[in-house]
Amino acid sequence: MLAHNFTDMLYKTRINGEDGYIYFLFEHKSYQDPLVILQLLKYIVRIWEEKYDRKANRLPIVIPMVIYHGESKWNVQTKLMKLIKGIDELPEEMKKYIPTYEYEVYDLSPSAQMGIAGMALTKAVLEVMRVVVISDNEKFREWLREIFKEIRDFPEEKFERFIDASIRYILSVREDVSIEIIEKEGKEILSGRSEAIMSVAEKLRNEGRLEGRLEGKIEFVLKNLSKKFGRRFTKELKEKIQKADEKTIDYIGENLLDITLEQLKEALK
Questions:
Q1: How far apart are CA 49 and CA 59, in angstroms?
Q2: For the chain, where are the E strands, in sequence order?
Q3: Beta strands at 18-27 and 6-15: parallel, antiparallel or unpaired
Q4: What DSSP string runs through 143-184?
């Protein structure tokens, strides 16, 4: 907690294939503090000090965001470089010595365009980022259904934008979740609006994204079944797995530790 006027949260997530963090600062004062940018910087440094990977000698990505819901529209500078006195007149070769970063603002004030719908959208986005790292698949799916309940009455544009971004994000982070699982969880709750999920699936197929995911899953399953069954894992079984759909591959992947050879053959029929 920063102070009585601030609430802050740190979310661990995957960014471009690497562990990273999104730091949210909820600002709800009646006036705007231009030094919030320095508050953010202090906390970014604190996060780096805590999460520094000594073995790899690397710092994680930290993306700072301010969720603002004060009375007036946010008009405080979001780029640190712009606050430096005389920066515009400074020679370019000198600017490299000046620390610089910027933060993103979600303005939920009454005069901002986001308004109440924007607040609900932001809440739903935060929920997705929170639950996507839940390792228990069943619990993740339960939370996914709750999120669908929250967004089912969104205006069309926001609904489709949320569905598109959320599905892409979930599939990029979780190897154990397929587009079919997302569709199944959303179909009953979203009713006719569940078609938006399949629309995203079609886009991803056209982009080659889902095929790439399936190929990765098949490779993972083949490698582990070869170790598990050795010579009993025949060429015929390998060929069947390479031709199997994602639902079958997901089933095998989820049961790798317990599945018997007979159960595997039955699943591949």
A1: 8
A2: 6-15, 18-27, 61-68, 104-107
A3: antiparallel
A4: HHHHHHHHHTTS-HHHHHHHHHHHHHHHHHH-SS--HHHHHH
Phi and psi angles of residue 204, each rounded to the nearest 5 degrees, phi first: -65, -35
Distances (CA, A) of 65 to 36, 94, 162, 247: 11, 28, 18, 37
Per residue in 53-112, pLDDT (tens digit) is: 898 899 988 888 887 766 677 888 899 998 999 998 999 899 889 888 898 887 766 555
C-alpha 74/C-alpha 31 separation (Å) is 9
Q: Output helix, strand, coil percentages for the chain, rounded to the nearest 5.
A: 55, 15, 30
Query: Cα dist. 93→23, 72, 89, 165, 172 in Å?
Result: 31, 39, 12, 39, 39
10 Å CB burial of residue 4 (0-12, 13-18, 19+) is exposed
**Is-contact 42 64, C-beta < 8 A?**
no
Which token pair is 41? 């910087």
Structure token digits, residue 61: 């990505």
- Longest Cα–Cα distance in the chain: 75
Sheet (strand 18-27) strand order = 6-15, 18-27, 61-68, 104-107
3-state secondary structure (DSSP) of residue 58:
strand
Token couple for 79 = 């780029």
Query: Which residues lie across from 63 on neighbouring strands?
Result: 22
pTM for this predicted structure: 0.45
User: For residue range 174-224, what is the model confidence (pLDDT) as tens digits?
Assistant: 777 888 888 888 888 887 788 888 888 777 766 655 556 677 678 778 887
